[in-house]
TrEMBL record:
This is Transcriptional regulator with XRE-family HTH domain. CDD domains: HTH_XRE (cd00093). PROSITE patterns: HTH_CROC1. One of its GO terms (molecular function) is DNA binding. Pfam families: HTH_3. The lineage of its organism: Bacteria, Bacillati, Bacillota, Bacilli, Bacillales. It comes from the Bacteria. SUPFAM superfamilies: lambda repressor-like DNA-binding domains. Signal peptide: none annotated. InterPro entries: Cro/C1-type_HTH (IPR001387), Lambda_DNA-bd_dom_sf (IPR010982). Residues 8-62 form the HTH cro/C1-type domain.
Length: 364
């Protein structure tokens, strides 16, 4: 929102001017200045450059308009809107987002985070699902085409591709991401070794940890998705290796989300193969992980990844905060087994009923 009234009042008093002094300089009445400062009227557009020049500031600053928001401001906006989705009608929150989009149309970090927010609450859209998906595409496309920040552009492309996947547009995904996986160049290792050559051991260690941390989480995501298309023998080997990674890196505490995705994916595949006991074992692991999620829900390091916390705070747009509010996440966790069509055939099984009861009590 433009805030000329407060800005003008502040600047005038800061320069120890009366309304009459300013009126004489601008060749307007004192009453006009008074109305500008109380918000009853607005200066003529030709007067704005003269006012800005007089106080030696930009017109944007005079109007109280900030086209770019700080990382902290973006985080605050994200958290507020995330809470609003819990307490206000969906359409009202969308109106707020659309207003922010217009107000900060060139603040690409905000646009990307608004698209992340919408992606995480897309399940609430109901009959506006396609419309909101298109809004996400619009936000990401603008960043993709206009931003000069390569990392931000790549994030926007990734979000756009996720939406295209949800909308079942595989050709669009290939258009956005390309048709081949680029070979790993090892720039992170080169960077870490450069820090060592400069005798900056802390920076080198942080770089190694970041690379390993991201690799572990990424590989768990690959397991979760790859298992759905594997032949049975290879699938069962993936389960063994994935469970070992969870154990070795203590992922239930370090990154519960990748564990939940893995267990749920494995359970679904076992259900497809009609292996009831194995399916229920994976669902038991799923529920136990949910019940023991560290509080508060946020990204963090541990005794092995000792440098990760500072990187998360510094580099991630939302810092350690999760992209949805905790209540929404817990409801999705319950729905993951209670409303999952893969487990319909086990719906009356005592073990599944007990698991659903346990996870529901934890969420409430």
């Amino acid at each position: 929102m433009l805030d000329l009234a407060h800005t003008l009042t502040y600047l005038r008093k800061q320069h120890q001017l009366t309304q009459k002094d300013l009126a004489q300089f601008l060749d307007v009445s004192t009453a006009a200045i008074s109305k500008w400062e109380t918000g009853q009227s607005f200066p003529d557009i030709t007067t704005l450059p003269k006012l800005a020049s007089y106080f030696n500031i930009s017109i944007d600053k005079l109007l109280g308009y900030e086209p770019q928001l700080s990382k902290e401001n973006i985080q605050a906006i994200y958290k507020k809107l995330s809470q609003d989705f819990k307490t206000e009608p969906f359409n009202d929150v969308i109106l707020k987002i659309e207003k922010l989009e217009k107000q900060y149309y060139s603040c690409h970090p905000l646009l990307v985070q608004l698209s992340v927010l919408l992606l995480n609450y897309l399940h609430l859209a109901q009959d506006r699902f396609s419309e909101i998906a298109l809004l996400i595409e619009k936000l990401t496309e603008r960043t993709h085409l206009e931003s000069q920040d390569p990392k931000l552009v790549q994030l926007a492309i990734s979000i756009h591709a996720q939406v295209a996947t949800i909308l079942q547009q595989p050709e669009k995904v290939l258009q956005l991401l390309g048709t081949q996986v680029s070979p790993y160049a090892g720039n992170d290792i080169i960077l870490a070794n450069a820090y060592l050559m400069l005798e900056n051991r802390d920076a080198a260690e942080e770089t190694f940890q970041i690379s390993l941390y991201q690799g572990v989480i990424s590989n768990m995501s690959v397991f979760s998705n790859y298992m759905q298309v594997q032949e049975q023998s290879l699938f069962e080997e993936s389960v063994l290796r994935g469970e070992e990674m969870i154990r070795i890196f203590d992922l239930k505490n370090l990154h519960f989300s990748c564990c939940l995705n893995f267990y749920l994916s494995a359970a679904q595949r076992y259900s497809q193969l009609d292996q009831q006991d194995a399916c229920l074992r994976m669902l038991t692991n799923y529920v136990e992980t949910v019940i023991n999620i560290p509080k508060p829900m946020e990204l963090h390091g541990d005794d092995f990844f000792t440098k990760i916390d500072q990187w998360i705070q510094r580099e991630l747009d939302l810092g350690p905060s999760i992209p949805s509010d905790e209540d929404t996440i817990r409801q999705k966790m319950i729905a993951g087994i209670s409303e999952n069509p893969y487990f319909e055939k086990y719906r009356e099984h005592p073990t599944l009923l007990a698991l659903i009861d346990s996870i529901s009590k934890e969420a409430n």
